[in-house]
Amino acid sequence: MANVFEVDSGKLVSAAAAKLKEKGISRPDYIDFVKSGAGRERIPQSRDFWYMRCSAILRQVYINGPIGVEKLRTRYGNRKGHTMHRHHHMKASGSIITDAFASLEKAGYVKKGKAGREITPAGKSFLDKIANDIIRGA
């Protein structure tokens, strides 16, 4: 049986995003109007940005064990470009990550622990089934 570590991360995140969209993970109303972080210039262009971010966060929780919002803000941040001085790293939006965690907790894939969010057996099974389908070519 395949797991998350044996498949391409891009394929896994895309397939998981499609499954989350089918399952009806709640999507905040504001997501079409906000940038994904202070370092970004524009709002996300993809209509499936919310589902892609949720599935990427779920994968990060699977791989990196209990993980918090601040670690993910750093992970999804980017370089802010300036004209006259050096570029600096800017963190991603904490609100988007917190709301993604809330949606994943409501679906039963993630739970809150002492050291951060942890993946539940249902979340682990969800990602492992998708990884298995990708390896089988389904």
What does this protein look like?
The chain is built from five helices and four strands, in the order H-H-H-E-E-H-E-E-H. It is mainly alpha-helical and 138 residues long. The chain has one domain: Winged helix-like DNA-binding domain superfamily/Winged helix DNA-binding domain (Arc Repressor Mutant, subunit A, Orthogonal Bundle). The strands form two sheets. It has a two-stranded antiparallel sheet. Helix 1 (9-23) packs across helix 2 (49-64). The two termini are 14 Å apart. The mean pLDDT is 86.
Topology:
Elements: H1 9-23, H2 49-64, H3 69-75, E1 78-80, E2 88-90, H4 94-107, E3 110-112, E4 117-119, H5 121-136
Antiparallel strand pairs: 1-2, 3-4
